[in-house]
Design a protein that fits this description.
The structure holds 2 protein chains of 2 kinds. Chain A is of the alpha+beta class. Helices cover 39% and strands 18% of the residues of chain A. The radius of gyration of chain A is 37 Å and the shape is elongated. By secondary structure, chain B is mainly alpha-helical. Chain B has one domain (13-370). Chain B is 66% helix and 3% strand. Chain B is globular, with a radius of gyration of 21 Å. The relative contact order of chain B is 0.16. The chains are: A alpha+beta, B mainly alpha. The A-B interface holds A 4, 7-8, 10-12, 14-16, 18-19, 22-23, 26-27, 29-30, 32-34, 36-38, 40-42, 44-49, 51-53, 55-56, 227-231, 235 and B 139-140, 181, 184-187, 239, 241-249, 258-259, 262-264, 278-279, 282-283, 286-287, 290, 294, 297, 301, 304-305, 310, 313-314, 317, 321, 324, 328, 331-332, 335, 337, 377-378.
Amino acid sequence: MASFEAKDKGRYASFTRRSLLLTGGMTAIFGVLAGRLYQLQIVDGDRYLTEAEENRISLRLLAPPRAKILDRFGVALAGSRRNYRVLIVPEQTPEGVPAALDALEKVIPLNDRIRVRVLKDAGARKPFMPVVVAENLSWDDFARLNLDIPYLRGVQPDFGETRDYPFAEELSHVLGYVAAVSPEDKAANVAAPDPLLEIPGFRLGKRGIEKAFDGEIRGHAGASRVEVNAYGRVIRELERKPGQPGQDVYLTIDQELQSFIYDRLKDESAGAAVMDVETGDLLALVSTPGFGQRAPLLRRQADIERVRIESDHKPLINKSLAGFYPPGSTFKTVTALTALDAGAITPETIFNCAGQFSLGSHAFHCWKKGGHGGMNVRSGLKNSCDCFFYQVALKLGIDALQAGARRLGLGQTTGIEIPGERAGFIPDRFWKQATFKEPWQLGETLVAGIGQGYILTTPLQLCVLAARLASGMQVNPRIVHSLGAQKQPRPAVEPIGFSLDALDAVRQAMIAVANEPGGTAYAWRITDPAMAMAGKTGTAQVRVITKEERSGGVRSNESLPWHLRDHGLFIGFAPVDRPRYACAVVIEHGGINSHPQVQLARDALLLAQKRDILGRPPAYPLNSAAASL
Amino acid sequence: MSAHSYNDPRRPVPFHQKLGDIDWLLVGLITAIACIGFAMLYSAADGSFSPWAGRQMMRFVIGFGILVAVACVDLRVWMGLAYPAYVFSLLLLVAVEVAGRVGLGAQRWIELGPLQLQPSELMKIALVLALARFLHGLEPGEISRPTRLAVALMMIGAPVVLVLLQPNLGTAMLLALCGALLLFLAGLSWYWIGPTVAAVVVAVPMVWQFALHDYQKQRVMTFLNPDTDALGAGWNITQAKIALGSGGIVGKGFLLGTQSRLNFLPEKETDFIFTMIGEEFGFFGSMALLVLFAVVIYYGIQIAMKARSQFGRLLAMGITINFFLYIMINGLMVMGLIPVVGIPMPLISYGGTAMMTVMFGFGLLMSVHVHRGVTVPRRSSGMI
């Protein structure tokens, strides 16, 4: 027993030693645990707290309502409409999404395409994310749906927002449209990214005013900070910052005038503009055909190309700003004014018209086969005599002529707020030499003098030309009057710099065109003397008239296929004694005897005057316009 | 009350006296730790006793009864039961291997009527009992004799291999470590220990290559670099570290842990419950729990030191080591220091078998304490 005790003592000593060793080891491990806790919770605590918050908090953007676009009288041209729609929340359907769709089909019409899409969307998302089943429901369908909702579990009636254009066709080229955000839009926003673009289904201005003022109309995103769990389900809202709605855009457009002009041109391929000659405010800016609500449906570039190619009326081109037309005889006003101002001719200078003018071996024809006889600037414009202006141009020279054309606003963009404007073209010696490696020919000066050849203009430029002739001021067009209550700045208008006598001579001639018997627009004059218009007609040839045809009689436009007919042009202003409105109309291949472009210009100028400023309702912020009276 | 009365089998110590000899301070500490567990389970259920906290409390009450009952049973009875318990547990392990049902991809449970039994949990106690008994019967230094050591190693090896086959890497590791440490405490010569440690270091790469399942390798790889797969297998570790770290110094407050409440924390009520404590009570809270654990372990070591029988000492140390290894492996795991192996935090994590095993273990520890004066002859085979 003693030996047992002794042995046990030895055993006990060894056990104690090793237990202490083990205790030391355990303490070390506890030290490691404590140290790790110190590192995680105290040293790196802030970092992990941030990560936990990032886990927990999700920022949901709130899209502000898109602001309205209104005309000068406060008529809404673009607004937001409630879009009645129906959603399905997959996890709330008791017997699955297909069964819920079956039940829903008894209430509102659904087709197989919708079914396939809904099932695909539902499969791709978390079960608590609602899936849109149908949009733009009629009120009847929506009402019926709401009545049956107690029996349709998992189905949610809902409304979203859709951009609405009450005058979609008339104003499509001015307003543009909104469409889904493209990768290019995102790329363009890299510098100052707007979080709104990240919202699924967000729509962005793609053309026209919607694009140019998208930032103002769009507003600023609001945000809702929500707590989400690990599966992304929203638990509660922590904070809500409402977005800042965009600013309404007031245009200078008069919707009635715009619609009036559009209706008259809607079957044509045409561009037209009506402008205040003092302020440059555009009352109408029409391009036909419009694309209405169809353009946003042409999502793919290929579709857009197809429409461009297949439709000879080219609805996707904004002809008023980007359609190029030879100005034809309307350009004679430029030739006349520049020559008078430069002293190349006086109002009394007379050139003879024998039906053609020979330069070297080449004959340049007048439109009137027998010729007009002796013409001065007044009768030359009134009769639109080509031979007179060949000789004026020859005397003036291309250098002075092109400088005068530029001074009147041609060959350059007008700076209108709508994107996509093109500059047109005014040729000069340097361009000719650089492009064709040939010097400028005198014959080309002659052709330029009557607005043919290389010269290209847009209807808006022609309207600016008319306005500058009428006011003698360097007016530029504008279409946005104010953003919200903030008026757009209006740059001071300088005189155009042509002598008043020259301007007056051209104006008198233009008055003669539309008011004296024999004037090319006399048949379509405004008979009320207080509202009488002045103007200049033009036709632009789009085909070559051969020598054989000329000798046998030029074919009438009516006998030609549409695409070979001349373009019909007209510029004008009214009233003649104190001009207020300028107008330009270009109808592609519309150069027929009834002169629809002149008729339209007359009616548009008449309507514009009848709807003059005194009749303006107070919705339009008037102060600056009233001050100019 | 003399300690000697425990040594005389003819005059059994009355039950009420044994109750008095129980170290109620230790029992109180254990209860305190369990209460922290209840609170966390209550919080994990978003402030509700169901489904976890209520049931866990019921289990603790039962476990408490087991603790007291086990503590009052004579140490020599436990010695006598050591081998039968070991053999029974081993048979159950074989049974799960043969007929166990598949749960969570691993065969760990066996159904005995209404009871779901996890034999690997039983084995944790049984192995300690059996090893303590075996080592008790050896002369000093005898364990270093190859024949004896071979027997001891087989006793450890058999259950470890069976548990590995389940496969349950965590528990196998725990069993192996616990057994090895008992051999160490029993006086195994350093001449054995040194080369073995060296061999293990060499063997690790080979085990990696040939013995580990793909999912186990995956766990290790993910552990080594959790960010490569932060939403997949690395999710647990990443989110556990975020939960712990975001608690900061004082924590987010009771019931206010966002990581757990919003389900970012996986297995928050079981293996990862410690991270909840870290999140809601911060560095102070988690350190307080570690200190409580350390005090319990200190108590365990004290009980072992004071026992007069080698069986009692080894049993008490074995139980304490087991408890410590639970805490160590779980702690290192949730803090991202070792790979995720399914080991719960004792007394805190939700789970019935673990609670019963731990309370049974503490019962044995307390039995050693109550019967600390009992001397047991080396050749005794206990009493039944």
